[in-house]
Design a protein that fits this description.
Length: 699
């Protein structure tokens, strides 16, 4: 290749290039963002204007022919993703109905094997840019402009991109090793052996310096586990397991000390180079060592580009615009300080404010007319011209594997999380002892008819109502699910199946042990088949309430609001279930039709009554009536239940269990599909962004 490189006579004050990575000593300096072991530089980066004041004049390179460029580019096509964005604008709806601009007219690109850092003062739009590029913008925000992958308008699919969010949403009950290993099993394809998946997980744990903490639980509010910085690294571990071609990192070093920050970023840089990964990282305050690892820098101030180009040339850009970095100051600190106007008023009254504002204005204008900005546009045009490979879906574990792994993970989590079932089991036992002793040995007198009804009503309503106790733990599960789902680790179907199956043993335990205490202390029908029906009905109701709470959680993700909503819904169902007001007395509109039939308590009451009363006879104390009352008469005339087979009630409840879970599935799926449509409809701009949202979601 006809590249010749000449060292610039201009020595920048801060020259990070040679120390970019320990494995990178042979990296030629011509590459705009530093090194490139695999990717050849595009044409414009070699057509350097020697009169430029900025760093690109530091090298003089012989231009290869366009054919050579195309040949190099075809090599590049097979290796990773070239991400470009052009004239990218993002705005949000303001309180008064207008639009507030968050990002305006951004251009840029990120290349395989490199790290592009997005920096700027807090609130400048780093996360928004990252979200936009990853196709994850939330509702209430609109975007315009072009985002291309390998010069094409195409969708990000599973296995091609991963996103490490600012928050570390992890399963608190699992150890670091378990979290990463389960994640490896969920994400890596079935064609990879379990041993290889374990090896990949161990390697990744090691890469992130977590070997020492591998057997420590993540921990949450109840148990102190690993530190915040270690959680950060676990989050990164999970997303780099598949070696995605495109990696988005939001504040990857927050919570890490400077040494850990350096090690984490250098491992990511190494991985990026080795695997041809394109890394885009929003970062707050990198140390000078970490800054040296960046190839490109996108410096934002209040939604505008202050600088986009090689990270190592930033100092020179600032210096040439009258803002040289003082000696002994970390350059990134200097850049951020120069363009932060948030605290100026407090710091130095009026004069300083106008200085910072002017500095930003000056730098933004200077950048716009600089060769850096021209080069970015040129680069984008080149990439557009030579359309690269289409992004294809990476291999992924099958639906069955995912369901099995998730079931195992969920089962372990439920076992270790005291609040999920164990606390409930204890409370249920206590309640059933209370229930059983209050109604102890109820007998077969006339008065026992009402007492039986009340006891069964308590079991059917309050014990099932208590199933909302596991809601906070479920909301935590949902957060993990939402994060993993957004990253396309698995589908909604696997989550629903795994959550349902893993809950069965615990709910069975809760139905049988406390149920037996209440049942036998009260002295209900002694035969085993009657008790089995009783326990099955209780179990089905708990499954049903859990399903109901899943639906609530998908709509109201806050656990306090969710508990209130769930309790309210159950209260309405209880009221219309036919006990507090007998079915024939229920007002016909709404309460009898349809609420009575929607309320699962109807079927529970009916099943319990038929199971208990049928086959028994009671003396009749009522004057003028027959001397005895049969169970059938009691069910039909006193409780006004429908006299079909009791197993039909159980079957209807089972159908409702399935229906509720299907509803949850459909709500999540519909939300995923409808949200972007509503967004598109709400913000019909002149030139909508062409990048697909919902990037990571698997089909
Ligand atoms: N959905 C939204 N509605 C209204 N304003 C929003 C929305 N999303 C972001 N913003 C605003 O856009 C600006 C940029 O937010 P963003 O989170 O991207 O900043 P950031 O640079 O990542 O900040 P930090 O470094 O503190 O995380 C902020 O002022 C924020 O309030």
């Amino acid at each position: 290749m006809p590249h010749t490189i000449e060292t610039s006579p201009m020595v920048p004050r801060w020259t990070p290039s040679q120390t970019r990575d320990e494995t990178n000593t042979n990296t030629p300096d011509y590459f705009p963002f530093g090194d490139s072991t695999a990717v050849p530089p595009p044409l414009h980066q070699r057509s350097i204007n020697s009169t430029s004041r900025h760093s690109m004049e530091a090298v003089a390179i012989t231009m290869p022919s366009r054919d050579a460029y195309k040949a190099q580019d075809s090599m590049r096509k097979d290796r990773g993703i070239l991400l470009t964005w052009e004239d990218l604008c993002v705005s949000a709806v303001s309180g008064k109905g207008g639009n507030v601009s968050i990002l305006s007219g951004l251009n840029g690109f990120a290349r395989p094997g490199e790290i592009l850092a997005i920096m700027g003062p807090s609130g400048c739009g780093k996360s928004t840019l990252l979200d936009t590029l990853a196709g994850r913008l939330g509702s209430g925000v609109s975007q315009t402009g072009d985002i291309l992958l390998n010069g094409r308008r195409q969708k990000l699919v599973f296995g091609t991109s991963a996103y490490v969010t600012q928050d570390d949403v992890l399963m608190t009950t699992l150890t670091v090793r378990e979290v990463v290993y389960y994640s490896a099993q969920l994400q890596l394809p079935d064609s990879m052996s379990l041993a290889d998946k374990r090896k990949r997980a161990e390697e990744t744990i090691d890469e992130m310096g977590l070997t020492g903490a591998a057997n420590t639980r993540i921990g949450g509010w109840a148990h102190k586990g690993i530190s915040g910085g270690q959680k950060r690294r676990v989050s990164i571990c999970m997303e780099i397991l598949t070696r995605p071609e495109l990696l988005f990192l939001d504040e990857p070093t927050s919570g890490l000390d400077s040494a850990a920050s350096y090690h984490v970023m250098s491992r990511i840089a190494k991985l990026a180079r080795r695997e041809g990964m394109t890394v885009v990282a929003a970062i707050h305050q990198p140390s000078s060592e970490v800054f040296e690892l960046f190839h490109g820098l996108c410096l934002l101030a209040y939604g505008k580009t202050v600088y986009f180009g090689a990270a190592k040339d930033t100092s020179e850009f600032f210096a040439s615009n009258g803002f040289p970095c003082p000696p002994l100051r970390n350059p990134s600190d200097h850049f951020l300080r120069t363009i932060n106007k948030d605290f100026d008023k407090e710091e130095n009254a009026e004069a300083r404010t106008s200085n910072a504002t002017q500095a930003i204005q000056h730098l933004v204008n200077s950048y716009k007319s600089s060769s850096h900005a021209q080069k970015v546009l040129q680069e984008i045009a080149e990439i557009r011209q030579v359309e690269g490979a289409t992004v294809s879906k990476g291999g992924q574990a099958s639906f069955l594997t995912q369901s099995l792994v998730l079931t195992r993970r969920s089962f372990v989590n439920m076992y270790r999380d005291l609040g999920y079932y164990w606390l409930r089991l204890a409370i249920y036992i206590a309640l059933c002892i209370c229930d059983g002793t209050i109604f102890y040995n109820i007998g077969h007198s006339y008065g026992s008819i009402q007492a039986r009804g009340s006891m069964l009503m308590f079991v059917a309503s309050f014990l099932t109502f208590m199933a909302i106790g596991g809601f906070p733990s479920f909301v935590e599960d949902m957060k993990v699910f939402q994060r993993e789902r957004l990253n396309g680790h698995y589908g909604v179907g696997s989550f629903v199946i795994s959550n349902s199956i893993s809950a069965i043993p615990y709910l069975a335990l809760i139905s049988v042990i406390p149920g037996a205490i209440a049942y036998y202390l009260t002295g209900l029908q002694r035969s085993v088949d009657h008790f089995v029906y009783f326990a099955l009905l209780l179990f089905m109701c708990m499954m049903l309430v859990e399903g109901l709470m899943m639906i609530v959680a998908s709509i109201v993700p806050d656990f306090l609001m969710g508990i209130i909503t769930g309790a309210g819904l159950q209260g309405v169902m209880m009221l219309s279930g036919g006990f507090f007001r007998l079915p024939n007395d229920l007002p016909k509109p709404v309460w009898r039709y349809p609420m009575y039939y929607i309320s699962f308590h109807k079927y529970t009451f009916q099943g319990f009554y038929k199971n208990e009363f049928l086959g028994l006879t009671f003396p009749n104390n009522q004057a003028g009536g027959p001397p005895t009352l049969t169970g059938e008469e009691i069910c039909r005339d006193i409780w006004e239940v429908e006299m079909h087979n009791k197993w039909i009630d159980l079957a209807i409840l089972f159908g409702m269990v399935v229906l509720y879970r299907l509803l949850f599935f459909m709500i999540v799926k519909t939300t995923e599909k409808v949200k972007p449509m509503i967004k598109g409809w709400k913000f019909k701009g002149p030139k909508e962004s062409t990048h697909d949202s919902n990037s990571g979601s698997s089909p």
